[in-house]
Design goal:
By secondary structure, this protein is α+β, with helices and mostly antiparallel strands. The protein has three domains: 4-9 and 80-228, Alpha-Beta Plaits, CATH 3.30.70.270; 12-78, MutS, DNA mismatch repair protein, domain I (3-Layer(aba) Sandwich), CATH 3.40.1170.60; 245-396, 2-Layer Sandwich (Dna Ligase, domain 1). The protein has helices spanning 12-19, 44-48, 57-66, 76-90, 117-132, 144-157, 168-176, 188-196, 202-206, 210-228, 258-278, 317-331, 369-385, 405-423, 426-438, and strands at residues 4-9, 29-32, 39-42, 70-73, 97-101, 104-108, 136-141, 162-164, 245-255, 283-292, 303-314, 338-346, 356-358. It has a five-stranded mixed sheet. β5 and β6 form a beta hairpin. The radius of gyration is 25 Å and the shape is globular. The structure holds a DNA duplex (18 and 18 nucleotides).
DNA sequence: TCTGGGGTCCTAGGACCC
DNA sequence: TCTGGGGTCCTAGGACCC
């Protein structure tokens, strides 16, 4: 029987801050997102005081002051470094470590004597605590999905932070108390779908017919059913190189001039290029986007993106920055207050070198549905005239360029998602397929 | 005024070829 | 001109995770 452990750092970012401020042990601590916008990590004490995940600072400012909650800006360099130390420590206890996220790892424990595992994991936990200062919880089970659940139990109920879930009878009792949305891979949406089928707990999902679940949730859901039954479907994966690398930020204050956008984009590109080289990859293309603040309904809205493809894939920061800033100059429109920008490196190798394609017709401020559909009609005509159902307009005198390949798909999907989010318009959902049919 | 920043996977159906 | 089957690749849409 295979055995897995999920090791999860408790309140990771908050714990990292505490390592360097030990006097805050036992006191409430929260860590904020970029620009100190909202809460992204909370210590147990902060959770107990009722600070929700994602809480916007401006709403909870007074409350946090009242309760003397210690508030930190995020320091990702620190967290990344601490994470690496934690992972390295765990490698001393088993060679099979899958780093799943910055604060979690799955361990492969097949071959270990099950009877001695809890103690082995207690030792691991203590070593991590001692060498890094970070508290972790460990869940052990025959599948990854069950290990995730065991980890919850470990975190909530066991004093030594380790829980092994192997006894079938005990498992039945535990699963009966777990809401389906708390299962790894079951979100709110899928949860609602399952509840409509009369499945509300992990136990009910465990006992459901795999075929029925496959119908409702695809093979992904069926796997979860098997995993809940102790049949391992998800194996330990080695860390793979990223298929796309993103770097984006919302600005602390609105940006209106092109120069500042160029500078921001240049630094994002440099960051992304660093990640790229670290995993020994080259980018075949770079995708660049800018947008105004969608939360400010009264502001004129503009959002656009461009892709530059390279003749030869590159990892050279200067070339990438040249491409990105040139894209920004094409994307920039005066008269807007920009809120966010970013780049995504892709391995699009089928792009022609140096070509820039814009994704969006130039959206005017405060477009109405009627205006938008008129604009779309024009765009359709342009695309029809160009012979290919491509997504670009010719205002810049740029040749239209069809996009293909896996990365192109990814980028397009991302962009579609943004468009839908921005306009909340079904017209945008259908437009792309209609364009495709023009061919 | 403020409301994060990253990622991955699956599938139905169409296009195209034989 | 119409019909049909099998295979592969791509697109578009729908999810999920931390």
């Amino acid at each position: 029987m295979p055995l897995y452990a999920l090791v999860d750092c408790n309140n990771f970012y908050a714990s990292c801050e505490r390592v360097f401020a030990p006097h805050l042990n036992g006191k409430p601590v929260v860590v904020l997102s970029n620009n100190d916008g909202c809460v992204i990590a909370r210590s147990d004490e902060a959770k107990a005081l009722g600070v929700p995940m994602g809480a916007p600072l401006h709403e909870y400012d007074g409350m946090m002051r009242r309760h003397k909650i210690n508030v930190f800006s995020s320091n990702y360099a620190l967290y990344g470094d601490m994470s690496a130390r934690v992972m390295k420590t765990m490698e001393q206890f088993t060679p099979d470590v899958e780093v799943y996220s910055i604060d979690e790892a799955f361990l492969g424990l097949t071959g270990f004597d099950p009877a001695s595992l809890p103690q082995h994991m207690r030792n691991l936990r203590q070593a991590v605590r001692q060498w890094t200062g970070i508290p972790v919880s460990v869940g052990i089970a025959p599948t990854k999905t069950l290990a995730k659940l065991a980890n919850r139990i470990a975190k909530k109920y066991t004093p030594d932070g380790v829980y092994m879930m192997t006894d079938p009878q005990l498992m039945t009792r535990i699963l009966g108390d777990i809401e389906i949305e708390d299962i790894w891979g079951i979100s709110k949406r899928w949860g609602a779908r399952l509840r409509a089928l009369g499945i509300g707990t992990a136990l009910e999902l465990q006992r459901a017919s795999p075929r029925q679940i496959r119908q409702a949730l695809s093979v992904v859901g069926e796997r979860i059913v098997h995993e809940l039954n102790g049949q391992s479907c998800l194996t330990l994966d080695e860390v793979q190189p990223k298929q796309s690398i993103m770097s984006s930020r919302s600005f602390g204050t609105m940006v209106a001039d092109c120069q500042s956008l160029e500078e921001a984009i240049a630094s994002y590109t440099a960051r992304a290029a660093e990640k790229l080289r670290r995993q020994h990859s080259r980018a075949g293309g770079i995708y660049v986007f800018i947008r105004t603040n969608r939360f400010r309904k009264d502001d004129p809205q503009y959002s656009n993106a461009a892709m530059v493809g390279f003749d030869d894939a590159t990892d050279d920061t200067a070339s990438l920055i040249r491409a990105a800033t040139s894209a920004i100059r094409h994307l920039y429109r005066p008269g807007y207050r920009y809120h966010k920008a970013g780049v995504m490196l892709t391995d699009l190798t089928d792009q022609d070198g140096g070509q820039i394609s814009l994704f969006n017709p130039d959206p005017a401020p405060d477009v109405t549905r009627a205006q938008q559909s008129r604009r779309m009609a024009v765009l359709d005509q342009v695309n029809a005239a160009m012979g290919q159902g491509t997504l670009f307009h010719a205002a810049e005198g740029l040749a239209p360029k069809p996009r293909t390949g896996a990365q192109g798909r990814r980028v397009l999907n991302t962009e579609r998602w943004r468009m839908r989010a921005r306009f909340k318009s079904p017209a945008y959902t259908t437009r792309w397929s209609e364009l495709a049919k023009v061919r």
